[in-house]
């Protein structure tokens, strides 16, 4: 599994022959790319409907959307998308097969209004657990799993459900504070999830979320977690 961070919460994930693009937003200082520079993904995954997460979804109208039914409907009406998993999107707790990947949607603690002339709800905000094997009760030592936590505060489901049962090997957590967790709560999330690798995301995009990722590294160490914090530069890749 190859993970590429394009800044903010935008990730390109390759599982086998399948390309997934999460929360496409290229107007951020960590990337040099424009949407046209990105190879068209097979799937676009949207955690929620805020503008800094769906801004460039319209650049990939041929991709299959993976999002809540409310957000799928909005994108189909406004961006020209025709395809969605299940024909209508998915919802919390569900797992869908996306080419060579299995994608499980889990809730995130955040808000989810689409702020336009006509404010509307995009359903529950979410995070995605992406694996190369279907999650089951039996742990699969050969599976590789990446958890994109979305925009979220710290929540005990990370400790009680996602960590022990969905078993991510790596997590991307927001550290920007103000709108999401900051470094110290994100570090607790990493510890609870018991991952091998932790990537900071959703920081340095706007003045309210400017952070030094070294603070996050220190906080993870302070929890006693064995996770390795990997601070990627924009458009840098990591093989999981």
UniProtKB/TrEMBL annotation:
Does the entry feature the keyword Cell cycle, yes or no?
no
* Annotated GO MF terms: hydrolase activity
Entry keywords, A to Z: Hydrolase
Alphabetized InterPro entries for the sequence: Metallo-B-lactamas, RibonucZ/Hydroxyglut_hydro, UPF0173, UPF0173_UPF0282_UlaG_hydrolase
Output the superkingdom of the source species: Archaea
Boundaries of every Metallo-beta-lactamase domain copy: 7-202
| Pfam families associated with the record | Lactamase_B_3
Q: Which PANTHER family match?
A: UPF0173 METAL-DEPENDENT HYDROLASE MJ1163, UPF0173 METAL-DEPENDENT HYDROLASE MJ1163-RELATED
- Family stated for the protein in its record: Belongs to the UPF0173 family.
According to UniProt, the name of this protein is UPF0173 metal-dependent hydrolase OB919_09380
């Amino acid at each position: 599994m190859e993970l590429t961070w394009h800044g903010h919460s935008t990730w390109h994930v390759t599982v086998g022959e399948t390309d997934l693009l999460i929360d496409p937003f290229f107007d951020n200082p960590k990337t040099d790319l424009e949407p046209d520079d990105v190879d068209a993904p097979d799937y676009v995954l949207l955690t929620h409907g805020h503008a800094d997460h769906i801004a460039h979804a319209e650049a990939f109208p041929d991709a299959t959307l993976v999002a809540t039914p409310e957000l799928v409907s909005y994108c189909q009406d406004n961006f020209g998308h025709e395809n969605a998993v299940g024909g209508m999107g998915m919802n919390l707790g569900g797992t869908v097969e996306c080419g060579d990947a299995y994608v499980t949607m889990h809730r995130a603690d955040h808000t989810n209004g689409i702020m336009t002339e006509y404010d509307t709800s995009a359903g529950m905000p979410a995070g995605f657990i992406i694996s190369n094997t279907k999650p089951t009760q039996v742990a699969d030592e050969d599976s590789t799993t990446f958890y994109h936590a979305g925009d979220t505060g710290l929540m005990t489901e990370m400790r009680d459900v996602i960590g022990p049962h969905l078993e991510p090997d790596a997590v991307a957590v927001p550290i920007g504070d103000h709108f999401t967790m900051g470094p110290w709560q994100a570090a607790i999330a990493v510890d609870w999830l018991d991952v091998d690798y932790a990537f900071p995301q959703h920081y340095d995009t706007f003045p309210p979320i400017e952070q030094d990722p070294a603070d996050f590294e220190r906080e993870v160490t302070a929890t006693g977690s064995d996770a390795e914090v990997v601070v990627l530069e924009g458009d840098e890749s990591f093989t999981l």
